[in-house]
Amino acid sequence: MGRLVIWDFDGTLAHRPGFWSGCMVEVLDELQPGHGVTREQISAGLRNGFPWHTWERAHTDLDDEEWWRPVEQMMAGAARGAGLSREQAAAAASATRRRFIDVGHGWQVYEDAHSALERLSAAGWRHSILSNHVPELAQLVEGLDLHRHFDHVHTSARTGYEKPHPRAFAIALEAGGHPDEVWMVGDNPHADIEGAEGVGLPAILVHREQLPVTRQAATLLGAAELILAQRP
């Protein structure tokens, strides 16, 4: 028995304007004033190299530092490609890592997140997070005061499986006790929606209108209403 909603994190419950490239430009503004590097230049160097870009490959043998090492190298490479020296690029990558997991810089919870979670909880639904994210995701969730809503926080950096890998969803279901009713809510049509539906879970796309998916809602409260009104 039981009811469980599995939520994506970034772009669904919370967001950081500019995400990785924006974070690096923020850091460069402080470290190298007048650097002239744009978000577009950094983004060009980050199009491949994150573990979720090769989601078919599991990485269950990595500890936190081993996960971060190639990510930092990729960020340094993006900075080098934008014209920074090797030393400047390495410093920027290291500082971006620290800044990205600092809840006091940039991270914002969507304004209806707490209301949506509380509305579903009142109706007997439990919640977990399943996200392609950094090892420190649980600390971010706690720092944003979202942790009180969730039984589990699953980050791919720790589980070793990136959505839409079926094993990523299996881990969340196992931790949740294999409940009878389960929904997935996320903002990524491939990782969240296709991934969930591929293992037989109904899913709702949020914050991304006019895309060809089975169910979508403009807001998190809208997603909550869909769950309360329907059965899988």
What descriptors fit this protein?
elongated; 6-stranded parallel sheet; 10 helices; alpha/beta; Rossmann fold; 2 domains
What does this structure look like?
The protein has 232 residues and is of the alpha/beta class. Helix content is 44%, strand content 13%. The chain has 10 helices and 8 strands. It has a 6-stranded parallel beta sheet, with helices on both faces. α9 links the parallel β6 and β7. α1 crosses α4 and α5 runs parallel beside α10. The radius of gyration is 18 Å and the shape is elongated. The two termini are 15 Å apart.
Write the SSE topology.
Layout: E1 3-7, E2 14-15, H1 19-31, H2 39-44, H3 64-81, H4 86-100, E3 108-109, H5 113-122, E4 126-131, H6 137-143, E5 152-155, H7 156-159, H8 166-175, E6 181-186, H9 189-198, E7 203-206, E8 216-217, H10 220-229
Helix pairs in contact: 1-4, 3-4, 5-10
Give the N-terminus to C-terminus distance in angstroms: 15 Å
Strand content: 5-15%
CATH superfamily annotation of the largest domain: HAD superfamily/HAD-like
List the strand order in the largest sheet.
5-4-1-6-7-8
The low-confidence runs, each spanning 5 or more residues with pLDDT under 50, are: none
The ordered H/E elements are EEHHHHEHEHEHHEHEEH
Can you give the mean pLDDT?
95
CATH architecture of the largest domain: 3-Layer(aba) Sandwich
The secondary structure category is: alpha/beta
